[in-house]
Specification:
By secondary structure, the chain is α/β, with parallel strands linked by helices. It has helices at 32-40, 56-65, 80-89, 106-114; strands at residues 3-7, 25-30, 46-49, 69-71, 95-99, 128-131, 135-140, 143-148, 155-160, 164-170, 176-181, 186-190, 196-201, 206-211. It has four helices and 14 strands. The strands form two sheets. A ten-stranded mixed β-sheet has the order 4-3-2-1-5-6-7-14-9-12, sandwiched between helices.
């Protein structure tokens, strides 16, 4: 399985231990996330962004250490994370994991979550996982899915990112059968009743979150 991992520049304390993600994956550093990867000694295939969070000296070190560094203007239509996602998609991966994309500025967090609702990123939806110390997040298009309970994660939430119809949950403490909900309904604090659960829905988008306190 080909994995592309993206490190964004969110708060370091929310980045999970990365050892499980270092094997058989290429990394892309986004702005301050590129500096973080350098500090952690994690090689990256590319570094992208406007690099407004780096000093000129730090940017020069980055260019010396990374073969492919692309600077973008601070005033642009795409966010740095979106630029990184496009670069990751160009590698035709099987999975894209994004780290450092939560916490800190709320506008950054919302932009990182909402980008997968944009039509231009529809092909990325099945591939992207957003991960921090407390949450594993993934967007889903209509279909049926079998989901494994992740080690250490207690809760399962289903957030409607559009008008959702036909939502069925099985293997969870609070099951559902063919339910419909409007955009922005938060079905939170559910729990797996076994090692895996399934869900399906007919229309809309759903953000599933596995989390812990």
């Amino acid at each position: 399985m080909k994995a592309m991992h993206i490190m964004v520049g969110g708060p370091a304390e929310l980045v999970p231990p990365l050892d499980p993600y270092l094997t058989d994956a290429d990394w892309i550093g986004i702005d301050g996330g590129a500096k973080r990867l350098l500090e952690l000694g994690i090689p990256m295939k590319k570094a992208l962004g406007d690099f407004d969070s780096l000093s000129s000296e730090e940017l020069e070190v980055l260019k010396q250490q990374v073969a492919d560094v692309t600077e973008f203007p601070a005033e642009k239509d795409l966010t740095d994370t979106e630029i990184g996602l496009i670069a990751a998609m160009e590698e035709l991966p099987d999975v894209i994991r994004i780290f450092g994309a939560t916490g800190g500025r709320m506008d950054h967090l919302l932009a990182n979550l909402m980008m997968l609702t944009k039509p231009e990123f529809e092909q990325a939806v099945p591939l992207v996982e957003i991960i921090d110390c407390y949450n594993w997040m993934k967007m889903y298009v209509p279909g049926r899915y079998e989901i494994q309970k992740l080690k250490g994660m207690r809760y399962a939430a289903f957030i409607t990112m559009g008008n959702v119809s036909g939502l069925t949950l099985s293997g969870f403490k609070y099951p559902l059968d063919d339910a419909s909900f409007p955009f922005a309904k938060a079905l939170s604090s559910n729990e797996f009743t076994r090692d895996s659960g399934s869900f399906s829905f007919d229309s809309g988008l759903i953000l599933m979150i596995q989390s812990k306190d």
